[in-house]
Amino acid sequence: MLDIAFIRNNAAAVAAAAHAKGMTVDLDQILALDAALRRDKTRLETLRAERNRIAAEFLTAAEPLRAASAEHSRAIAGELSALQGRVTEMEQALRELLLTVPNLPWQGAPIGPDEKSNQVVRVVGDRPDFAFTPLDHVAIADRRGWIDPPRIAKVAGARSYVLKGRLALLEQALLFDTSRRLAQEGFQPISVPALVRGDAFVNTGHFPFAREDTFELPRDGAYLAGTAEIALTGLHGGEIIEERDLPLLYAGFSPCFRREAGSGGRDVRGLLRVHQFYKVEQYVICRDDPEETAYWHARLLANAENILRDLGLPYRVVECSTGDMGPGKVRMNDIETWVPSLTCYRETHSCSSLHEWQARRANIRWRDRKGRVRFCHTLNNTAIATPRILVPLIENHQTPQGRVRVPSFLQNYLGGEDFL
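Now predict its structure.
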């Protein structure tokens, strides 16, 4: 959420940001409501001052004037009551409108409507040159008995999965090792629930924008989160964090749930787009210093790249366009990993800086050494998400015999095995 004073003073820039992100925002309505609200608040203060003046003068006023003062005070009280009700309604209406206003993208973001406008920043690693006809991950995993599509479809329907045997152990090894290495980087491992209240989704900006992609449990007044970021932001909602305690660094583990609404049948085969998955999310709350935020953005991205390099997977980093980055993002970089069966790169990681847009919604602030209080900045980045990462891992590391090479740093988790 943007500060209304910022919108008031930078309406043209906010309108340009909304246009660049492909969003429709009624800034005229927001500014008109803001102006009316400020007028009514000024009137409230005037009436309160008048009521206090009358009360102060009442005891010393002559008897003939007391009746008139009392009548005047009652009239003021009636107007105050009506005006306060109107102000409360306008404040709520203005907040709901402000929740629909996007953040301003940084100047380096490519301008464009969707992912086709993303720009490749760097390409890392050599794509495999197979001397045999490679299989896709579904064929390999099915041949080895690691998955069971027909049976799990009976249980959970389409876009569900089950992992068995050594592949299940590999998934757990990936998740654990990622948490372990992030702990060594100073991030606190933390597991959070996937079942979260609706206001937590509002605070992160997932509502109202991505409501259609979220599973709802109406009876419980809760939703299933698609990322640990939602719960992690909620942990510090309404707090003032002392400067000495910043930055807060989390490695959040959680089950995740997404409808994958609007994916239009893309990548539905196998493990790429499933409704339930697991993720270790890097999450940062820091001071509202653009340079510090840029440092953490680069650090989060580097952590994810180090994992991919250790996995021996070819990937590329892209600078996401304004139309692809989402409403709250100032900057977003995706990491796309090579999937041989699709002969293209597919997104496996996403790194985002939101500045104070998210913290303002959740009311997360920090206090400096001089006692000044300001809104924090927040960042998040996928460290690892399974089973999606298993797709490029299986396909890039397959052998002619249909086995899968195990990256060296994971072999200890699998009894020293070189191959699955």
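DSSP finds twelve helices and 14 strands in the chain.
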